Amino acid sequence: MKKIFILAGIIASIPISCGGLVTKQAALIFLLSPFGIEAQKVIVPSLLNYTFSGIIIGCAGLILALTEARNNKEPSEFKTPILLPKNWFLVL
Question: What residues make up the domain containing 63?
């Protein structure tokens, strides 16, 4: 059963829709239907998981933004240096 969810995650990573939202549910319905699991029992938990994980990540970002604003700091920037050749646009 674990392999089915891993396979559905791989299918969801195919860039067909935004965030693999519909492709993961379609893959789960297709892969779990031989086991007699109905589509409603697949779609609802998957969408709730997608929604609540987005809400949790959004709340964490909001807390960090408010904390930095309270300390009168600028929002932190991407601090990891990106190492590119001097004429990187010619390489591409």
Answer: 2-72
Interior CA angle at 6 toward 61 and 40, to 5°? 80
Assessment of whether the complete model's pTM goes beyond 0.85: no
- In DSSP notation, 55-81 reads HHHHHHHHHHHHHHHHTT-PPPP--SP
Q: Which of 57, 5, 62, 65 is nearest to 31 (CA)?
A: 5
- Number of structural domains the chain divides into: 1
CB atoms within 10 A of CB 32: 18
How far is the C-alpha of 43 from the C-alpha of 46, rounded, in Å?
5
Task: Give pLDDT tens digits for 38-83.
Answer: 888 888 888 888 788 888 888 888 888 778 766 665 555 555 555 5
**Please, are residues 63 and 51 in contact by the beta-carbon 8 Å criterion?**
no
Please give the structure tokens belonging to residue 69. 């604003």
7 located within any domain: yes
What is the number of residues in the chain?
92
